[in-house]
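User: What would this chain look like folded?
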Amino acid sequence: MKLSVAILISGSGSNMVQLIKSMDNNHPAYPGVVISNKPDAAGIKKAQDLGIPTEIICENSHKSNGLVFERKLRKILNRYEIKIICLAGFMRILSKDFVEIFKGRILNIHPSLLPKYKGLNTHARALASNEQFAGCSVHLVTSELDGGPVLAQSKISIDKTDNVESLSTKVLKEEHVLYPKVLLKFATELKNL
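Assistant: Here's the prediction, encoded as structure tokens.
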């Protein structure tokens, strides 16, 4: 039996699309649902166009209390019998309690060579530090922001002409290749447990 994957997004969903397309007939997992915390996220329509169920948990419902958001999220995950969660541009930090419930089953893609440049503005920070290399990392999510075990990385050279936008574009191309590879390996190992 295939494993059901939830992909959580907040924006355009470019990594989400690559993950969905990678889960073909031979894949041990399938895209069960795409969930967004932003009703206007462009990725929602892309998921619907690909025939994937979508759910939106409105921003306003968690302004006062993140637990309400996570309670709704857990209900959706249970309804779709989710075994793996992939964060793909999901711009919200999950609580320690939530992470503990799904321990070892939440993946995230981060646009830096972790442990360098956790958090936001990774490309600007890499450029400001005159780094020679940039890249992306897929890691397990723990209660420490971008601090979980790194499963794989992809490294690229930073050119002298690179700016935040050009570097972001180059790294995103790497993300689109790396994340599906890691999900395939992760789902295969999880299924064989």
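The first strand starts at residue 3 and ends at 9. If you want, I can go into more detail on any region.
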